[in-house]
Amino acid sequence: MRAALLAFLLVACGPAIGQNGDDVAPPDVPTSEQWRAAVITTRPVDLDPSHPGQRRLGKLIFRGGVSMTADVPELGGLSGLYVGVDGRFLAVSDRSSVILAQLVSDPETAAPLRFVNAGVAGLRDENGERFYETGLGDAEALARLPDGRFAVSFERSQLIRFYDLDRLGPFAPSVRGPALTEAGELEPNAGLEGLSYAGEGRMLVGAERGEGGAMLWLAPLDAAE
């Protein structure tokens, strides 16, 4: 059982899991490559355990949080997450996996309560191959693009890949994202930790640290070296 602590930023993805939690594969995908069903168990957590009931952090209001455990090892190491206003939840992990579920929240307080219809699958490279134990599938950040695709940054390889998860799930080959100047010089485990769509066909990408401090890029989606 792996555990992860989840802090929620409400932001949507399309599931490829049946309404009853059954595995569903896109057309022409072998059954061995379907989403694997997962059971996620939650328990509520406080913003500050030493001050139960605290609801404010500066101007932010804490709506709620949960600790998550699951019957699949891929839940551990969650890095980037995306939650839609309709409760659709997507997260990528250090283990080159993507977790998809439906988040059920309290209708009055918006506090997260539980996850249903959860599934897990492995992310793929540009050749459609699983990363497995290569160490190059350390997925960190996640952002949705205007065309519905998701951008995922990978630490260690210092690459950004695009996934059409809503239409194809994680089964199709990824598409290489923008090339970032000097990104290849980053330390293997201190790389591309954050990204977001910045408008006008550009991405804002941040590294944990680089020479002289943290590094930022504002790059066109099709930027090439």
Mind summarizing the main beta sheet? 5 strands, antiparallel
**Which parts are unreliable, with pLDDT below 50 for 5 consecutive residues or more?**
1-32
Beta-strand residue percentage: 35-45%
End-to-end distance, in Å? 42 Å
Compressed to H and E, one letter per element, the order equals EEEEEEEEEEEEEHEEEE
Tell me the Rg in angstroms. 18 Å
The quaternary structure here is: single chain
Tally of separate helices: 1
Shape: globular
- Strand count: 17
Determine the structural class based on helices, strands and strand pairing.
mainly beta
Assign a percent range to the helix content: under 10%
Mean pLDDT: 80
Strand order of the largest sheet: 2-10-9-8-7
Could you describe the 3D structure shown?
This protein is 2% helix and 41% strand. The protein has 225 residues and is mainly beta. It has a 5-stranded antiparallel beta sheet, with no helix packed on it. A 4-stranded antiparallel beta sheet has the order 11-12-13-14, with no helix packed on it. The model is unreliable at 1-32 (pLDDT under 50).
